[in-house]
User: Fold these one by one.
Assistant:
Number 1:
Amino acid sequence: MYKLIRNEGTARRGELVTPHGTVQTPAFMNVATCGAIKGGLSALDLKELKCQVQLCNTYHLHLRPGDETVKKLGGLHRFTRWDGPILTDSGGFQVFSLAKLRNIQEEGVTFASHIDGHRIFMGPEESMRIQSNLASTIAMAFDECVENPAEYDYARKSCQRTVRWLYRCKAEMDRLNSLPDTINRKQMLWGINQGSTYEDLRIENMRQIRELDLDGYAIGGLAVGESTEEMYCIIEAVEPEMPKDKPRYLMGVGTPENILEAVKRGVDIFDCVMPSRNARHGHVFTWEGCRNLFNAKYTLDEAPLDESCDCPTCRDFSRAYIHHLFKSGEMLAMRLCVTHNIYFYNTLLERIRKSLDEGNFQEFYNNNIRKLDTRI
């Protein structure tokens, strides 16, 4: 259940109540692809880093260790030791990312595993069954994410197929949630808006999928080749068509600037691998901009990564030490920087919520929109 607390313009402050806890929105979901944050963090670490939601990857967990194995071990919550909400994607993004290894039909998609090449079939029913076995809090509908730019006719046909798949997803989830051996019989289903960069397709698709009265709605198929201006235009076109009483999730986005812009346009929830991926390559986000810890200027710099940050890394370690760790190939460098970036992202969303509570989001936006993505 989603509760809208207040608006500032189109920006929304709300709460999402789930079977595994309440999420304060706007919120960032922390990507634990295979059940762990890349960079050596566990679910227990996430609690100290202000995390609210963990996102796990259906496709990867289906391959290893196998969704049936996870079910036998009690579901993702027991398996990973994370006791808050978990969202699982549907595997639909792999329709996009494994374009050279797939074959799309009305029934579903045949993949070649990126691990050993064996053939995998996944359709709406298979995706729902895998996610039910994983026992996540929120399951995403199975969809096709097309690469931008896409031909209009292909994008239109893909949208129509995604809607047909959504009806099949809902029917299968209703069936699964009625079974006595299902771990999470209150699993929620969120639909995904598609339509490439065509506003008319996006609007038509959103009007169609909102008829199912799902638990939440995502805007998918963005940050996959289009410009940021195109992305913002699509959000603005779709937002008026999205139910006001349901959470809105922008999939796979993004930078601090992207998040501020999307919150301003009415988005509630985000996920992105950027904080952990960038951190593993020495790039950290700070309230003054982005730092590259490989730069020689940090050799003798005894300041923390961000002098205004109180994360575990900034409390105890210097830029010089972390610079040395990267240069020495020490894994600790990655863990310390991932810790900082995850904390930074969750603090950013926390401050956005505070600004909305206090009615000064526009001021917060103006003070930070050009600064946070600047390279120091």
Number 2:
Amino acid sequence: MGLHRPITIGRIDYANVWPIFHYAEQMLPGDRFIIDKRVPSALNGAMKRGEVDITAMSSFAYAEHADDYLLLPDLSVSAKGRVNSILLFMKEPLERVLQGTIALTATSATSINLLKIIMSLHYGANPSYVTMEPDLDSMLQHADGALLIGDPAIQASWQDRGLTVIDLGELWQRWTGYGMTFALFAVRRETAAERPQEVAAVLRALSESKRKSLKDRGPLIDQACRQLGGESGYWDRYFQELSYDFGSEEQAGLKLYFDYAQQLRLLRHEVRMQFFIENTAIRVNE
């Protein structure tokens, strides 16, 4: 790692992270920090390869390599119930889908494994899965149901196709009583060790952006209407129903998800969540 190159920060290219990044980029000068926008699966791989230093990343991908990363405290993309952008679209009744085929988006590990956990442990089902690009029409040509996430899921949900739609955040909450954390913010351990002041600057910028964005959602709502379409009332509710904290409630829900994933052997090991703090000490949640 070159000590003098800019820090590269991964930004998920979906509206669900906008509050945490909307003002942050103005606070992080371009000669010291680079923002890299990609879908979650691409950022997960880039983080693993060392192409980005700090990133918003799928919770499941963090868990797979948790020993290599530290979490930035009190930042996440979570939902206490309905998430509105992690959706299972079904052209057949649920009973048939449980025994049929589900097309999975190629863009996120967390949502794919959440669906598998729900199918196996909640419904006692074992459908077949096929991974495809996130195009709903094509997916439903090859499967009974289709999992979409992020902006494509939102835009598909606005169309009246006669499909049944299940919100996985809402279903998880009804089943477990917990909210679900879909994305976390992590830093590579070597970056935290070699450049703690710059990591702290990123943490402060992201935290301040979250605070300002949630205090006044108007700029985010206006941007979403311009860029993605839809009505302002939808986007106001969308940003309200997401949670960007990562306190004890969010951590408890995510731990249950990790435990279930380990039970199904989707994860091979127990996950200990370790956090970056500004004095470079490490806090461990046992």
Number 3:
Amino acid sequence: MQLPIQQHIAAIVPYPPGKPIDELEREYGVTNAIKLASNENPWGPSPAAVAAITAMLSNLHRYPDGSSYSLTAAVARWIGANPEEIVLGNGSNEVIEFLVKAFVNNDDMVLTSHPSFLMYQKFVQVRGGVNVIIPLKKMRHDLEAITAAVTDRTRLIFIDNPNNPTGTLIGREEFHSFLTGLPESVIVVVDEAYVDFAEHEQRIDILEYIRRSEALPAVVSLRTFSKAFGLAGLRVGFGVMHSRVADQLHRVRQPFNVNLLAQTGALAALEDLDHYQHTLRSTTEGRRWLSKAVTELGCQAYPSHANFFLIDVRGDATRLYEAMLYKGVIVRSMKAYGYPDFIRITVGTADENKRFVTALRDCLQDLGYVRT
């Protein structure tokens, strides 16, 4: 067999998902494992969303609404946008793909930070574009270096805010200053997958910039139902942008890209904001408790505006990750991200957090990283 393989496709390294719980239990012979590696919502979806999805199961022989009219309208009401400023996707990562398809051609340049969400760069590789990667500076986006790297070939700039994996946040004033230093021909994509967990007064007013497009670059916000709403398994997200940008994305969007159950579940979740608020409060409380607990073990917990945070474990993070697996606790080693002594953990339920701390204490002692 001879395949016409394209070099830029062959060079792509597939996205590495977190280890599933059932795989861990099978490989390591443990039971009741907990997963704190993928920034999932441990409290799950709204019961209203589950009920709505269950009621819709008998309609699976029907195509979903190709325009996602009801969900688009509900999202617009929730965030104060207009429906024509919303583009829904099969997860917010599909909206990333739309942006790259619509605006990036061969040899066009796209700026991203490192570390950040790996899919930005992969979609650019698929398109045959050029990734320009700017290292974080003190665990924050280096906006000055990003600005300096812009050329007349730059089409998109991706900034995850809060950043994954560091949880750091860009301030309002520094974001405004950043925008004013960029050419109007560039589109700035602010991935706000975790912004629900940040305090309102610390968030960028994205809609202000979307509607103040004169003399400024176009700005796009990416949001998701996977995190704060607990619907990761349904894959539904959205982008907020100027209607002219949205029009281009709809031209490359496949019909029926958001499935029936995803539309149904997300719509019901927006009608149960009490559950959403419970997730936010519980995450904040758990993040504070965990930070204090791991600090008392001799590690360093880094401040975060998301539902996860980094921990300097004072030793090889991959060895610790592997030791934690035998305790039935899945965390994420940051060695591949350039932080060999760090792990990233998701804030879990109170019981999961306590179990994590117990396992961490035992593994730190066994490995001799810190004295406890």
Number 4:
Amino acid sequence: MSKYFSEERIAQFWVFQLSGWTGLSIVSYFSLNLWYDQPEAVYLGHNILQSVLGVIVSWPLRYIYRRVWNDALVLRIVYISIAVVIFAGLWSVLRLAVFQWMTGETGIWSDFGGWLFPSIFIFMCWTALYHGFKYYRLVGEEHDALLRMESARNFEAARAARAESSTREAQLEMLRYQLKPHFLFNTMNAIQSLVATKRNERAIEMINALSDFLRYSLYSDTKQFVTVKDELAAIKMYLLIEQARFGERLSVEMNASEEARDQLLPSMLLQPLVENAIKYAISKSEKGGALMIEAYCDATHLNIDVIDSGAEVSARGAAGASGVGLSNIRQRLEACYEDDYSFDLHRTKEGGVRAAVRIPLNHSETMS
């Protein structure tokens, strides 16, 4: 890209260089050759040749001005003034010598000042146009850079908005699930059964679990990312409620390494996976089943597996992989991590389903 811009700028310089000196030649023809009644070819040839000399003599000024561009302003003015006088003087000497050679006129060196001062004016105009165009181009480049930065900010803002939107959708989906009549009925019926059998401590534990689970869902509404240990604590509350329904039919095991417990992940990411495992595996089996949640780290990523023992029916498919909950997980992961994540579901040797999530470590550092 830089090579393209360099070639483009060189082309632009020569377009302006040739156009400017050609324009000077035309102006000189009408203001000097015709005004002083010098239509002869020799004078016209000198007019053209002095513009050619102007192209050649002024060309090094571009490199001089680029060299002093970053110097202090006063120093730049001094260097530019000296360069203008020197190169204007050189051009004056050359065009006066050529004029004398082409026309055969003599005794014109005494009028050197009359050739020098217009030359200084012309080279001052050349310098002003060069700096004006360069400043114009820099302003344009800065404007383009600001637009690119703004576009990048808008992209990041849109990405964050998608992540937040997906998070809130998951939270609303979770609350809708909690408020489903059959869920509340099963939960309250289980509590009533515990009270009726005078298992008050267990009933209180159930009520507290339901209360804490609802409180967590409302609290996490303000946090896009939570630690693994907080997420597992919320899942434990959810499973306490489900265990009241399934009793000994549901066994749960949670394992998280010390490093994994302090890592961050999108809030309520695991609840749909646990819900799917219970819905499509545990509840489909008369004997119930086991649910295992593991969290561990490798060199660059956090890995979380939700594994169930499988159902006694064969038509389970991929654990409801096309469901709304799992689709929401994929959308959230993509919004949060772009391509730096994986989410897979596949059967285990024992006939269950393993849902595996892999996301970068310490994601809070890249999102803050």
